[in-house]
Design a protein that fits this description.
Oligomer: heterodimer
Helix content of chain B: over 70%
Largest sheet of chain A: 2 strands, antiparallel
Strand order of the largest sheet of chain B: 1-2
Radius of gyration of chain A: 19 Å
Number of strands of chain B: 2
Strand content of chain A: under 5%
Largest interface: A-B, 44 and 40 residues
Structural class of chain B: mainly alpha
Number of helices of chain A: 11
Number of helices of chain B: 14
């Protein structure tokens, strides 16, 4: 609201709590972008559209098949990965060794295609995944948050920790880290870098799609929602450090809270704008924050 | 000095440099000659053009202009911007503000709108050049999106519904001539930028920024120059579009489709090639006219063609043409 009249304390506390919970979901989305960037140096400009794709998958699973979106999450993740693998083989792999720009522009083309296909197939309608718990509020004393935010946060953090465990503890994670650090040396040591890249891409796409389901349940989405989430995800990646899973989680939560502060101060329409301005500020003031962590 | 001797050696001597000079001057004056020829043709052709031809022609020239501007940054400077919409929209808003608020005539407001865009480029350059490559790309995208969201939410510039131009818009023919003028300026600027010392510096920065810096190139300045000039041209184009519509609103002026058009035109036409933007614009506008009733399908198809060109013809249609031409010449 203009005039910066401060609302009462419980509204502020609830809003900050919502921001924190929302930040967890942003972190999950950003994670997908971060690992693709960290491991394959791929600037996935179609990340937002992958997210929206996940939201549509969740929407139709819920509304047509009657599957609860949370139970549908693994299904969405598997379906996205199954689409992403051949996709990577056909579009990204042939461009290996042609620099960063060609794959980035290819993904930009993919983003245009997907966005307009969504528009043609599903119309420009705003949709939301309806669940019995979406509107329900959780109360802790004066703080009230929608239950779906809390569920989304917990699921996102669990998934992010799962990805972290996968990257740091499994054999695939070892290959992944090797391929990220030095692809040539990794290949010499017998790591199938192409396969690692394909799986990394699929993992990133699955993270985006699962984040999309959660965001689609907590909020609403349209065919063109993706670009906003792409940029917010980028802000999180930049703040958290590329390829740094823990940093991404912290940065996501931080950005969620900051966005809530912005929305409280200037009105709800400024929520996304605040995220972008913070991103541009971080680019200007703390670029070194971007190159820490696994490269 | 007149050469009066009949001695063949000295005649040979005097011919040699003169010949070389003639080559140099033709290639240097070529663009200006071409521009004059274009203007002359326009003087004869424009009065006979129908509304449809003017409409499509205007769009074609406007798109060639922003494609040239993008090519200057990405093709020659290696700075892949996704923020064309930021400068296009800024130009559109600046023109409307200058005309409505200060009563400037259109022909003065247009270059001033360009200057506003150039100023914006300078203001954000420190942020977007801070790191290279992908950060420039994503930073410019964030800039465009931030400006769009700001214009939608802030009520000072008409909010989401936008503002109308208080003066009557000029006729289609005048607008078309203005776009011809803008393209002429663009061609001269691009010619200077691609033939002069600047172009060598710019390409040096593109190919290896560290090496260029070590050789004494002031990389920040060179990149800034390209960014500012490109933003100036894009903003004038945005101002011209606002003049045509007679209104600005954030969704159209800051729409990502301006960025998509610029980069797909250049990539399809041929990145870093002199004729690339013109060839690409012809292709994209023709596609747009064919699929005028299905804008979503048109954009999706543009995306698909973009991917195919990147994969199979990295030098674009201009590259394909060159290959065919050269192939014929050698065989």
């Amino acid at each position: 609201m203009p005039g910066l009249s401060l609302p009462d304390l419980s509204v502020i506390a609830s809003s900050l709590a919502s921001g924190l919970l929302l930040g967890g979901m942003l972190a999950l989305t950003a994670l997908g972008l971060s690992i693709a960037l960290g491991v394959m140096k791929l600037v996935n400009l179609a990340h937002g559209e992958l997210l929206v794709g996940g939201a549509y998958l969740g929407y139709f699973l819920t509304h047509a098949a009657g599957v609860d979106p949370l139970l549908g999450l693994p299904l969405v993740a598997l379906a996205t990965a199954a689409i992403a693998l051949p996709f990577h083989r056909v579009l990204i792999r042939p461009l290996a060794g042609k620099g960063m720009e060609a794959p980035m522009m290819t993904m930009f083309g993919v983003s245009i295609i997907l966005q307009n296909l969504y528009l043609l197939a599903f119309s420009a309608d705003t949709r939301a995944i309806e669940t019995p718990y979406a509107a329900h509020a959780l109360r802790f004393g004066p703080v009230a948050v929608p239950e779906i935010y809390a569920i989304g946060f917990v699921v996102s953090v669990l998934l992010a920790m799962g990805v972290h465990a996968l990257v740091t503890r499994s054999a695939f994670g070892r290959d992944l880290r090797a391929a990220a650090t030095d692809p040539t040396a990794a290949a010499v040591m017998g790591v199938d870098v192409g396969r690692v890249h394909a799986l990394t891409f699929a993992l990133g796409a699955s993270c985006a799609a699962m984040g999309g389901v959660l965001i689609g349940t907590a909020f609403s989405f349209t065919p063109s929602t993706g670009s906003t989430y792409l940029l917010v995800s980028f802000a999180v990646v930049v703040m958290g450090g590329i390829g740094n899973i823990f940093g991404t989680l912290v940065a996501g939560i931080m950005l969620g809270v900051l966005q809530s502060v912005g929305a409280l101060l200037f009105g709800d329409g400024y929520r996304d704008l605040v995220g972008l301005v913070i991103f541009l500020l971080v680019l200007t003031l703390r670029p070194q924050g971007m190159v820490t962590g696994v490269r | 000095m007149p050469n009066m001797t009949n001695d063949s050696v000295s005649r040979e001597h005097s011919r040699q440099p003169r010949l070389m000079m003639r080559y140099a001057t033709t290639s240097e004056f070529m663009p200006i000659l071409a521009t004059c020829g274009l203007l002359l043709m326009v003087g004869l052709v424009v009065p006979r053009m129908g509304d449809y031809a003017l409409e499509v022609g205007f769009r074609l020239l406007l798109l060639i202009t922003i494609a040239e501007a993008w090519n200057l940054m990405a093709g020659y400077g290696g700075m892949v911007s996704l923020g064309m919409a930021a400068f296009f929209g800024t130009g559109a808003y600046a023109l409307t503000g200058l005309v409505n608020g200060m009563g400037f005539p259109f022909l003065l407001a247009l270059p001033l709108a360009g200057l506003v865009g150039a100023g914006l480029a300078m203001a954000v350059s420190r942020a977007v050049f801070r790191l290279r490559g992908l950060y420039f790309t994503v930073g410019t995208l964030a800039l465009a999106e931030a400006l769009r969201l700001f214009m939608i939410n802030h009520s000072g510039f008409g909010g989401a519904s936008g503002i109308f131009l208080s003066k009557d818009t000029p006729g289609l023919r005048t607008l078309f001539l203005m776009s011809v003028g803008l393209l002429a300026v663009t061609v001269v600027v691009m010619d200077f930028a691609t033939r002069s010392r600047i172009s060598i510096l710019l390409r040096a920065v593109r190919d290896d920024e560290d090496a260029a810096a070590q050789m004494g190139v002031r990389t920040f300045r060179i990149k800034l120059a390209a960014f500012v000039v490109s933003s100036f041209l894009t903003s004038v184009a945005g101002g011209l579009q606002a003049l045509k519509l007679g209104t600005v609103e954030p969704y159209g002026a800051f729409g990502v489709h301006w960025t998509v058009s610029a980069l797909s035109i250049v990539i399809i036409g041929g990145q870093g090639a002199r004729a690339g933007p013109a060839i690409g614009a012809l292709f994209v506008v023709a596609l747009g006219e064919l699929l005028a009733d299905w804008p979503a399908l048109q954009l999706a198809l543009t995306g698909a063609i973009l991917i195919l060109v990147i994969r199979f013809a990295p030098r674009g249609l201009a590259g394909i043409g060159q290959m065919i031409f050269k192939g014929r010449a050698t065989s």
